[in-house]
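Fold it.
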Amino acid sequence: MSAEPILTVSHLSASIAGQQVVEDVTFEVPAAGITAVLGRNGVGKTSTIRGILGLIHRQGQVTLAGERIDGMPTHRIVQRGVGYVPEDREVFAGLTVAENLALAERDKSPRREFVAELFPDLVKRRAQLAGTLSGGQQQMISVARALLNENRILLVDEPTKGLAPKIVTEVADALEEASKIVPILLVEQNLEVVRRLAGGAIVIAGGRVVHTGGAREILDDAALTTRLLGVSAEVHS
């Protein structure tokens, strides 16, 4: 396994409609496992992901496996092997499950069997219109689309937001399985999901990185969790 980080972000700043939303973000993502991006609401976590992808105006340096990608348009970054699961799912409501997945296929040999094993419910519902699915089922489509292709990294934004506990567990199961074959940068507010999945964590406040370290190092320290995230975390032994 390579010791080099798969993704390096240096002095990233980003703005939306002229308003600065990311000030000066610097971090590295290891080439294996899940790295969580944590922080209070509105601190720039989603904007950091969108800045990496070039979905919003950004400056700074972003390197994927040693190659600069910050000057590339979004579609080129995706073609380089950056999968994206957006916060709002963004499924095509008027298309079937199968059509949503087919549109996402980029490789000559997409991982259809892998996705079918992770999401058997989508196989059953392949002929159903995506707009008629529950929020959890739509989230599964969004994750499945990213897993169909052989990506170098997945950027996953708030995958469990608004989901019922049972669906949260299913989505977490899928991400855990996916992380065995592709590194994941995960924005997530559910701290139990972070505790279960993430090895490392990056904490953002005010558009800047204010802490990096092991996810459990942060979450097992009640005072640190409260100070950095503004919430209390139950300390597990």
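The longest strand covers residues 19-29.
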